[in-house]
Amino acid sequence: MDTNQKNHITSVFQSQKKFFATRKTQSIDFRIEQLGNLKKSFVAHTDAICDAMFTDLGKSRAETEYAEIKIVLDELDYCVEHLESWAKPIEMPSKQHSSGAEIVSKVTFQPYGLSYIVGPFNYPVQLTFSPLLGAIMGGNTAIIKPSENTPNVAGVIEKIVNEAFSPDYVSVIQGSIEENTLLLSLKFDYIFFTGSPNVGKIVMKAAAEQLIPLTLELGGKSPTIVHKDANLDKAVERITRGKWMNCGQTCVAPDYIYVHESIKEELIEKFKRYLQKTYDGNSLGKIGKIVSQQQVRNLAGYLDAAKGKVVYGGKYDLETRYFEATIMDNVVWTDAVMQQEIFGPILPFLSYSDIDVVLDEINSRPKPLALYVFSEDKTFAEDVLSRTTSGDAEINSTLIHVGIHFLPFGGVGTSGIGKYHGQYSFQTFSHMRSVVELRQ
Fold first, then answer.
1. What is 3-218+411-439's CATH number, 3.30.2350.10, 3.30.70.20, 3.40.605.10, 3.40.50.720?
2. Catalytically annotated residues
3. Over the chain, what is the mean pLDDT?
């Protein structure tokens, strides 16, 4: 990183600090106006977003329009509609002071100040602009660093931001490790990071050194349990949609399947037939592309280390970064594919006869970002949820909770800290301040 870039980053940081000090962002009308500016610019760049997504990640226009554009716009409209009511002080119960005077209590919502938003590569538009909605709603300024691994999308993000906002209010800094290291050394008022647990540790350490509050949206090996009474056709369709969207590069994708041994063979055969039908016998290049050649090599390494366990798919092309929807059977926890989050289109199968053993195994490992259970027995499904911990969970579905902006989304433990979406984004980017007035 050259001196000009260092000076630019420092200048943007200082100008945003000064702008926040004007208190202009405290106005609810100002915040709503800025959300409107964002929508106008965002919509104007729809085609550019779709083109960049295809170039960087091989995403189809249909997938981009839903997962990257519609989800953001739906949340934005919902936030504009409700922000004024969310931002009102909340009158709280109180009690009489010992002097006999009346105590009046309330909770108010204050902006933190200058926020730093670090976006990921896998859903680079959705997972950058959704946190930005929270920063704007909370009355903060924001510096955004998009992922360097999706450079074309990062360029579009910068254009959208530059057209919607003044740089002393919201600005984009392009770059990679050097730029991020410099930014993390600055005294931000709030940090919002989406990415891997390993990088999350670096971000958290930097924040801890300056006691900066933060949200970490990480990941992990999200388990899927398919019980013997599950509707297998629905399970196959819904797991497929969750696993192979974005070529498996989804933080809440089903990472592996625990299936009851009595239905394992039937379930695998149904997956094979469904994939054959859906992708005309070859999913290569039809489910997106892996973000980098190095990640293709990593995924290929899982297959090479477990000879004979690939029962469907397994083809890939290093040059194009295409990787086929792949199923592995007879997988055990010592296999390389089970040592960390896969983040690719490989779906390993493990079988069980005793659900207690499964839950003990899941609970002995880092807490996942999501957990999915397929069963027609509501008591069984609720029992699984009550005896496990995960950021969020679904029964007889996958992935849909991410697009429901009425719900808080986030991890627990190693899968993340903090929640956001809709009102929860407003609260995340706001300091809840208790205010007491003593009335004589």
1. 3.40.605.10
2. 217, 251
3. 97
